[in-house]
Design goal:
By secondary structure, the protein is an alpha/beta fold. The chain contains eleven helices and nine strands. It folds into two domains: 194 residues, 3-Layer(aba) Sandwich (D-Maltodextrin-Binding Protein, domain 2), CATH 3.40.190.150; 99 residues, D-Maltodextrin-Binding Protein, domain 2. Strands 1, 2, 3, 4, 5, 6, 7, 8 and 9 form a nine-stranded mixed sheet that branches. Keywords: Receptor, Signal. It holds the Pfam family TctC.
Amino acid sequence: MKKLVGALAMGAMLSMTAAYSYAADYPERPITVIVPFSAGGPTDTVTRLVAEAMSKDLGQQVLVENVGGAGGTLGAARVAQAEPDGYTLLLHHIGMATSATLYRKLPYDTLNAFEYVGLVTEVPMTIVARKDLEPTDFKALVEYAKANKDSVTVANAGIGAASHLCGMLFMSAIDTPLVTVPYKGTGPAMTDLLGSQVDIMCDQTTNTTKQIQAGTIKAYAVTTPERLEVLPDLPTTKEAGVDGMEVSIWHGLYAPKGTPAEIVDRLSKSLQLALKDENVVARFAELGTAPSPQEDATPPALKEKVESEITRWKPVIEAAGQYAD
């Protein structure tokens, strides 16, 4: 019996030693970050900037792979089912939390299928419209939407996309249901807005700032508590008289459940360094956002964010009744 106990103890020690050695040598090959949306969108832009900066610190290339579809749940499912070795990661936005209510049958358990690495950024949203839409300011836009609710169209990049969530929040805040027009990605939605095929869209500054500055779309408001330096003339929704519209699209980095704690810690520290990278800071500023502070680029901060956002969005989604199977 003593020999058996001793053998088991020795086996456990060897296993722990092997795991430690594995984590200490990490990474030994390129890492892939899954973006659960199409290339060229806001989340893809954020991910590629961060991946490039993390590559410098980790000494291995951090590749980005786009796995779009089903509001980000296909890409998230890919990572949830991946080997928990730190070589397949997920960078997802607020949809990580809202999908828990939006989708009746998720292929993973949102709160228990991932290890949390840290928050990356919180991107402000903008209320924009086709260039030739009649209203001249946000107050007039709300009045126009209410008066023409059966014909005013609100574009989004698909169920679960940031633009879909913000569009629901807009309709909830003005207590008026509008005609929702979903697309297969941000690119097609913006193309039709530029072509005046749809009326309104609520989307991230990472996707709208350049269009606003170029005057190719009409901007009405930002969804932040204060005005943005990059768009100083754009009022906040609260300034414009609408409460309940303050929202930012936060992004977080995840690993599959069971990834060794040492690897998660290594990734979190690398993320924190990446968010201080001069190029990341400068490019984020151009896009109307900023990197998350160091204390937020941590596993506990991201976990708390996901849990609180599931609670926050659940009643909004249930009131809108816009679910996906």
